[in-house]
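Question (not urgent): is this output format expected?
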Amino acid sequence: MTYRYKVAVVFLIGFFIDCINIFMSAVALPSIAHDLHVTTSTVAWVANAYILGLTLIIPLSTWLAGRFGGRATLTASMLLFSLAVWQCGLAESFHELVFWRFVQGLGGGLLIPVGQALTFNLFQGEQRARISTLVMAVALIAPAISPTVGGAIVDSSSWRWVFHCNLPFSLIAAGLSWRWIERTRPGPLARPDIQGLLLVGAALGSVLLGLSLYGGDYPPLAAPGCLLIGIACALGYARHYRRCDNAIVELSLLKSRNLSTSILIYYAIPGVFTGVNLLSIFFLQDSLHFSARSTGLFMILYASGAFIAMLACGRFYNRLGARCLFVLGLLLHSAGIATLYAVDSAADLPLIVIAYCLMGVGGGIGANTAQTTSLMDFSGTDTHKGSVIWNINRQMSFSIGAALLLMIDNVLRAHLGSPRAEHLSFAIAALIGLLPLLRLSRTLPRPPLPRPTLKEKRHAQSPR
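Got this back:
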């Protein structure tokens, strides 16, 4: 095996581990909430803590790799990940579990951007398209199989093994990183923007905490207080950004209409779906009495729809443009969520199948189009800076979507009870998912149309 494929294998193993940790643990949340005696909105921090750790370490990953080398960074990240997943499985309290999930996110967040950069630098031109296909395949396979496997583990054993089963993969990735990745010498580096990182982390963490506390059995001022702290930290970063020459998040890039619209779409589709899927897991298991394994099987339908959408986007993006695909994705995705509103019992299985298929196709169209469109306006160093914003947005959309939908369900449950609260939450989520249509009333810049081939020119010129 050549060196570049060895690097690719290490990256793909780490990427696979990251994907399954987001979706596999979600199926176990009802069991975790029951065993550790926490509410539905509180247990979401099992996912939030992991994603928050990922988000905070991503901006520092490039500096750490430059300072200590890719080999040491990747190996250390997987060893840290291994320690964290083992401790997650041994956690005796909910706060202990959340802490180790945060540490687990720090480990995973180091491997993904560093491994991706090493891999893509070794694959150029048409070869990069091949490795991108493998990355997309992992991104579809992991969400498809991990909820089913996680559900089977929960049904047959314990939610703790959902975390322990990651250990062989992470240790293999650590060993291969140390054995296969070449040692590099550190070069001169600018000092990282630690103050900016702390302000961004405090803003994101406070907003998530405020959404989680709202409507629960907490002091009345707890939730709005956290939200105000989050807003204050965000304003503090905006002020810091104007004074800092090497700010960790380059806010000026948000003037790009393609990037800002793609960010909005990601919150409305993958972000909203994360919250809807979490509500659906509790609804299906607690109200309709589906097993954890059966609940996980529905993600196969979602992944199948997303796969079809990925193929369609690759073929029609240049012909239709981002705006048309965004509108189609938003409508299909919200139609799938609205279908869940009509589900009242386990006998409505066909409706659940239709809902997940529609959400998969619509979500796949929207997410793939956003991924393609987001960095279209940038080149050179701006591409890397835009990538930092995009990856932070991508991770935080999952957490904010889940926190927002759980907050809505928490408030409605206090007045309506279950399952009426879930039904109304699905309806509200469908409406939230359509909000970007207001921004799409203006036409987005279209990509240049592909030049016709010689064969196509001859065909156009031939007499009919």
